[in-house]
């Protein structure tokens, strides 16, 4: 057998000899340990996926396959997205689940319209800021763990709202694959295994501050985190999803399951009542779009999400031709980072629940973008940017870590969906017998009563998760998302720039080395007083040239190189050619994900 294999290898090497011309055309390469070459495209990426009838891209291969099965069974892109999202709550619990919130942008080919849904939850109706402060004691911010940062989980309600308008299969059918995997088990993926280990370490270090016992029982029963390849089961989650499949939306928000959740949360110090859950509803909103260049428009959802930050960056960057410099050059990175800092200064000042705070329309104006662009010094980093001088209407009187996926069906319906428990797996609390963790999104409230994002009863906190949509020449073109807190708006813009300014395909645009600027004023800080970190730190991946890093430091940026991929998000995208209806999909190397079609 060994001789046969050697013969086959020799035949493979000699059957198609290289010509002198082939050899001459190949550039000399440095011999080193690293990745191999590719016949087409960049060596550091793989080919995008191309199909015609339907496509899904998610952070887990099994979730992608579930979405495709739904499409092949006649389900709409919304059916497939719901099914995949349910699966990710089981298979990627370190980023999402039914204890969290959901935002989505849906393109409806029947009407040619974009629809946005805000599925974020609110704070308890009967708890004031003063009462919350009393519970917090000397703390100057809401904690990331325990009962106090929990807001009403909005995901399940958003599922049913989307399904009512755009679903074709029953919700029971959409949830069935995840129920089966929860009972029978599924293998842990490599990146998820790593995140589970990190979560166990983080929660264990704070176990004296909140009740971690139920979470231990669900995910860490033997005292260890499940490892890659280990079969994991969650029968409690299967029971919860079966109740939702059987009894609908109210099974979660206004039923016996609700009472169990409320009893548990109140015992942990929460002010929630059943009325808070029963009264929750998602909101249909209109996405906003801003033109960039060459016919491309980026579309995002309005606050309380941070989607407008990406649009503000685009409005600033359209005033400079980034393609005059090489990708990864210090000049291009400098302008992008400064645009991010300018946009985020406004995020910290103006972004909040629009039911409680007026969001200035000027933020997305081209004139305002040009005005902000003029504040960028081309030669050096500005020590601190302040918010724009915009008149803010009086505060209104209020009434009463993440996963991204995208699905496109054969009729051209396109879904861009993002869902999250916020920090890692969430706040650490699991109601007995439910199998899911509550989010800690309320950590993003400000405790300054003068701030638009201040904690108030029945209010939605500032949200980091944002789905995106791209139009080209006025036509629906691409869904995209990039999970990862404050990385998301700057990630959306980096992907768009990679495609438009540097001619990358969808896969290359996501695999390319990224930056993540962290710091500056935050939406949780008080309005008055200095920012804790006005300049911030520019984190870059090793693919950014060393000479660019040195030049950026000379320009005054604080730059650190990080090579673990954790803080640079996780990207999925699908593009649809309006003429041929051919679909192109991508999912990046930093996650376990898969893009696939048929």
TrEMBL record:
**Stretch forming the signal peptide:** 1-20
> Which keywords appear in this protein's UniProt record, sorted alphabetically?
Acyltransferase, Glutathione biosynthesis, Hydrolase, Signal, Transferase, Zymogen
Task: Give the positions the UniProt entry annotates as the active site.
Answer: 402 (nucleophile)
Query: Has UniProt tagged this entry with the keyword Transmembrane helix?
Result: no
Annotated GO biological processes are:
glutathione biosynthetic process; glutathione catabolic process
Give a yes or no for keyword Signal in this entry.
Answer: yes
User: Which reaction does this chain catalyze?
Assistant: an N-terminal (5-L-glutamyl)-[peptide] + an alpha-amino acid = 5-L-glutamyl amino acid + an N-terminal L-alpha-aminoacyl-[peptide]; glutathione + H2O = L-cysteinylglycine + L-glutamate; an S-substituted glutathione + H2O = an S-substituted L-cysteinylglycine + L-glutamate
E.C. no: 2.3.2.2, 3.4.19.13
**Assembly information from the UniProt record:** This enzyme consists of two polypeptide chains, which are synthesized in precursor form from a single polypeptide.
Its name, as the record gives it, is Glutathione hydrolase proenzyme
Which species is this UniProt entry from?
Answer: Qipengyuania citrea
